[in-house]
Fold this sequence. Notes:
Number of helices: 10
Shape: globular
Strand order of the largest sheet: 1-2
Helix content: 40-55%
Mean pLDDT: 86
Largest sheet: 2 strands, antiparallel
Structural class: mainly alpha
Radius of gyration: 17 Å
Low-confidence stretches: 1-15
Number of strands: 4
Strand content: 5-15%
Amino acid sequence: MQQNTRSLKAVSAEPDFSFQKIAKRALDILVAVVALIALSPVFIVIALLVRFSDGGSVFYSHKRIGLAGASFGCLKFRSMSVNAAARLDELLKNDPVAREEWEKSRKLKCDPRITFIGNILRRTSLDELPQLINVLRGEMSLVGPRPVTAEELPRYGDHIAAYMSKRPGVTGHWQISGRSDVSYEHRVSLDLYYISNWSLWFDMTILAKTIPALLSQKGSY
């Protein structure tokens, strides 16, 4: 992590009206609008599949920490059963191996909460399409650090302010670098490296590498 963070610049959550920042936000809005229109039939099909699979809600909103520490509801198509919280509590209470995995990464490779439709959505990352709405709202960017919960934020240590200086991304350095297959510490170092070395060209490079990363399905669970 030291190698990735030693060049970390002083950052601030104050507005930055540089050309690159303005261009980044303009690109976010343009791509989000075009994608939402073009993918509207996909949205409808997925919404129907999720709704009629178990009668639960179509979308899932989970509180994440964004720019300047603001909390927002990160949107996804619901991929878990309607009683997901209770099932997780029961699993962690009775399975020490699963509990250790959850405490290390906040992920479970064999997650009993995920529905059949949800598994497909997660493997293809289609569950994250509603985050384009978050992008339009200004809560997220197309590219940025991972959106994390308040409980996860302390893992950034002395770099919490750096994390909060950027909008979280629909995709990012983590997305193209192994996703859930990498340790949590490495995820943090990837976010910090992105924040320290951000440029519009870096964003374009990550966007170009995102599609191959999604098609490989590496670390997608």
